[in-house]
Task: structure prediction
Amino acid sequence: MVQSETGHVFLIGAGPGDPELITVKGLRSLRAAEVILYDRLVAPELLEEAHPSALRIFVGKQPQHHTLKQHEINALLIKYAREGKIVARLKGGDPYVFGRGGEEALALREAGISFEVIPGITSAIAVPTAAGIPVTHRDYASSLTIVTGHEARGGDEAPAINWEALAKLGGTIVVLMGVRALPRFTQQMLEAGMNPQTPAAIIQEGTTSRQRTLVATLESIALQALEQDITSPALTIIGEVVSLAHELHAITALPSVQDLLLSRAS
Result:
């Protein structure tokens, strides 16, 4: 690859899991990259789209274990860009939706590095859709609240969520990265007066061939998730829209576009 005189960083949203859900612009930028820093939830198929000579660096984070701390990831982005490289920071979902892309963008700006943020399809919307759950519906919910299930205080983590306030808000609530916190926040919502029979679902590895969907109620979702061994990555969706899952799942379970094209060609 020809090295440019001035480095540049693309902060790319890889989408919710299905490699075909990356944007055209995101894929084009990924293919141009000389260095790729990628997260744990990025589909392996996307890395195969990179140039064969591109340097691939895993910087993924798992619950209770980070391969690199955030400031170390920022430093790598700056390092390779200052070497004149085209750098792709490939992140699951959207870079600015609980992806810490905003922190990386600020670090690049402070370092005087040129960059572009390429939005991705957030799992907060795509994963419920893949399970037959529209996050809004005129008859069920006219508002959508997206929160993180990581509640650690202090340091560089997000502040604790006021679950009691969310329970009174209504509409649809989507909780990302909240498998371990599921018993705690559902209990807090119940204690705040939310109807125990409010439909709820937890979806593991959404939009992929390994997707698992558990539909229950606010009162029972935590216990059922434990009994069925639901693990990360998964998101929780709470609200009346979940009641549509059984009706609309049959639509989302149709053959993929690729399958349809293959069947027409045969």
